[in-house]
Structures are given as structure tokens and as C-alpha cells.
Design brief:
Blueprint lengths: L11 E5 L6 H5 L5 E2 L20 E5 L37
Antiparallel strand pairs: 1-2, 1-3
Length: 96
């Protein structure tokens, strides 16, 4: 992996533009790109390539925030309806 730490399969970067930055850098604000897919700096559509001060911020993983939808959800309450199970289990100890 070019430029990344060995063993980090999803090493990624984010383009950081100091100040307001050019329009190309603003489009990439908050977007994490795999290191292998990251564009070269200055960006190809940069308005001021000779004065560009954009840098990469490196991350070990491109994922951010909760990985599952239910991690943000409050804990669900247990079932409070009537017991609908009529039979006991199949174990011998269930009948003693």
C-alpha cells in the first residue's frame, strides 16, 4: 500500500483545505477516500494550483460513527404482551 501503514487495509485520507479553499477542495470536505483512490494534490480542478495549501488528514479506517443502525437507538423494552407459549419444552426436566 503506497503511503499507508502496513497492515491497514482501509487506510484513508481526507483533503483538508486551509481557510475557505477552492471549490474542488470544498466538494471533498468530510469525504474519506481510500489512500489508493485519493487524488493528487493540488487537485486537478483547483483554482489556484501554484498557491494550493491543501493537505491530507490520515485515518486508519474510512468508517466513521456507529457501524450499525441500531447503535444510536434507545434500548428496546422487553415484550410485555400475554404469554402465548402453551407447551413446555422437550427436555425431561421440563416435566418434573
Amino acid at each position: 500500500m503506497a503511503g499507508g501503514k502496513l497492515g491497514l487495509k482501509y487506510h484513508c485520507v481526507e483533503v483538508i483545505a486551509p481557510g475557505s479553499g477552492c471549490a474542488a477542495a470544498r466538494e471533498l470536505k468530510g469525504v474519506r477516500l481510500l489512500s489508493a483512490d485519493a487524488p493528487r494534490l493540488p487537485l486537478a480542478t483547483c483554482d489556484q494550483p501554484s498557491e494550493c495549501k491543501c493537505i491530507y488528514r490520515h485515518f486508519d479506517d474510512r468508517r466513521q460513527g456507529p457501524r450499525r443502525d441500531d447503535e444510536d437507538a434507545p434500548i428496546s423494552r422487553p415484550y410485555r404482551g400475554p404469554e402465548r407459549r402453551k407447551q413446555r419444552g422437550r427436555r425431561e426436566s421440563d416435566y418434573n
